[in-house]
Write a structure and sequence with these properties.
Layout lengths: L2 H8 L15 H14 L1 E7 L11 E12 L2 E8 L4 E6 L3 E10 L8 H5 L11 E8 L4 H5 L8 E5 L4 E9 L4 H6 L5 E5 L1 H16 L4
Antiparallel strand pairs: 1-2, 1-5, 2-3, 3-4, 6-8, 6-9, 7-8
Length: 211
């Protein structure tokens, strides 16, 4: 059996199930954005922001620098012409996207690495934090099997089969949700600011059930 035949025989036995997102029309936007990046042409856009910020409403010109896939969706990073800010916009939220003939020059110092910095995922905070998390034996092996962040350092505790993960990240808003997803199996050792955020979220959640 050839390698191709062997791989084709495996296809029905392989299934990848990612979280569903609303992507109607996103394919056309993706191709338009990709073309604009290649040709260094600005886009005329309309964007539907769930936060309904006034600055995100109406038509605007956008200079796309790069495409990025993360957190179950495609994003485009580039400069919003009106305010000169570099934004990260979700492809499926574009209500309108048209490539123009207006050329632009991407900054020589731009890169996705510098744009995202040491963010936990995509939201770069203003301050760097050393994070220390203790995971008990029930989830330690599963957590240690994954490389969650470039700065990750793992400390195994053979006495109780727990594990401590260390990270250096920019901002705490994203990682707090990840910590909460492990419930009682994860304890924040450091910093106190992250511990306080977790406690605040727990207290707010309890109010939904214990009035």
């Amino acid at each position: 059996m050839s390698v191709r035949d062997e791989l084709e025989s495996l296809v029905p036995l392989v299934h990848i199930d990612l979280a569903r997102v609303e992507n109607e029309g996103a394919g056309d936007v993706f191709e338009t954005v990709r073309s604009a990046i290649i040709h260094r042409r600005a886009l005329d856009c309309e964007y539907e922001s769930p936060r309904k910020k006034p600055s995100d409403s109406g038509a605007f010109r956008f200079e796309p620098y790069a495409l990025y896939f993360g957190q179950r969706a495609w994003y485009v990073i580039g400069k919003r012409h009106a305010d000169g800010e570099v934004r990260t916009l979700k492809i499926c939220r574009f209500a309108k996207c048209r490539e123009t003939e207006i050329a632009f020059t991407m900054p020589d110092d731009f890169s996705l690495k510098t744009h995202f910095g040491q963010a936990w995922r995509m939201i770069k905070g203003t301050a760097r934090h050393h994070v220390e998390l203790l995971f008990d034996k029930h989830v330690a092996e599963t957590v240690a099997d994954t490389w969650w962040h470039d700065s990750q350092d793992i400390e195994f505790h053979t006495d109780n089969d727990s594990v401590t993960l260390h990270f250096d990240i920019d901002g705490l808003d994203e990682i707090v949700w990840w910590v909460l997803s492990y419930g009682p199996n994860c304890k924040v050792i450091h910093p106190a600011e992250l511990r306080d955020k977790v406690i605040e979220m727990i207290d707010q959640t309890k109010k939904n059930y214990f009035c």
